[in-house]
Amino acid sequence: MIEVRNVTKSYRSGAGNVDVLRGVTCEFVEGSCSFILGPSGSGKSTLLYLLGALDLPTSGEIVFGGRSLGKLSAGQQNLFRRHEVGFVFQSFNLLKNLDALNNTLVPFIAEGCTPELRRRAGELLDRVGLQNRWHHRPSQLSGGEQQRVAIARAVLKQPRVILADEPTGELDSDSGRVVFELLRELQQEQGATVITVTHDDRYLRDTDQILRLENGRLSTKT
Ligand code: ADP
Ligand code: MG
């Protein structure tokens, strides 16, 4: 269970404080699939970064499986991000000099890739439909294929939560549908909690929770 308790986030800028999140309270049941919708600038990415401990709230707290993220030491936060969270970004964030297989293994490069990890990475690429693309570099892959590599990379560490920020923002609608279906299937197979930010509301039928952010505040829909 992930609990967001009265979270605010303000950024200090030259012109004063910008209040991006203005008291957000919600929860994400373990193993569920949620979408966060809302117009551009409403604070969606900010909330997702806080959920992944890439940044901390100005006030309020985020409690992940009983641990308040803000109370973890810097080292514990780092371990949390590395082992428990899988990120998928709009712009894929693949390394252009590595092939699909090695991009999938990037989170493990520092620790060393065991043969078992390489085997699982290949299995995951097959699983996301890239069985003939292991040794293609990003420039040799379509946008939808690159995003599937990014998903395989996020899933390889078997994270407890997958955070996806506009994962279909740069994809045509067919590739977008594949990406949503894949996230849903992997969530059901692996039991991860999946939280997806999108303003693509075409694929929202099969989901547990839809949250709508507007101007830093949340209104719950269904
Ligand atoms: P969304 O993802 O819904 O489009 P964001 O969470 O990215 O919205 O941003 C919400 C608001 O916060 C925007 O007005 C943005 O300019 C501002 N913002 C985001 N990050 C920063 C930052 N690091 N410093 C200052 N302002 C920021
Ligand atoms: Mg955003």
Automatic annotation (TrEMBL):
PROSITE patterns: ABC_TRANSPORTER_1 (PS00211), ABC_TRANSPORTER_2 (PS50893). GO terms for cellular component: membrane protein complex; plasma membrane. Residues 2-222 form the ABC transporter domain. It comes from Planctomicrobium piriforme. It comes from the Bacteria. The lineage of its organism: Bacteria, Pseudomonadati, Planctomycetota, Planctomycetia, Planctomycetales. SMART domains: AAA (SM00382). SUPFAM superfamilies: P-loop containing nucleoside triphosphate hydrolases. GO terms for molecular function: ATP binding; ATP hydrolysis activity; transmembrane transporter activity. Belongs to the ABC transporter superfamily. Macrolide exporter (TC 3.A.1.122) family. This is Putative ABC transport system ATP-binding protein. The keyword ATP-binding applies. Keywords: ATP-binding, Nucleotide-binding, Transport. Gene3D superfamilies: P-loop containing nucleotide triphosphate hydrolases.
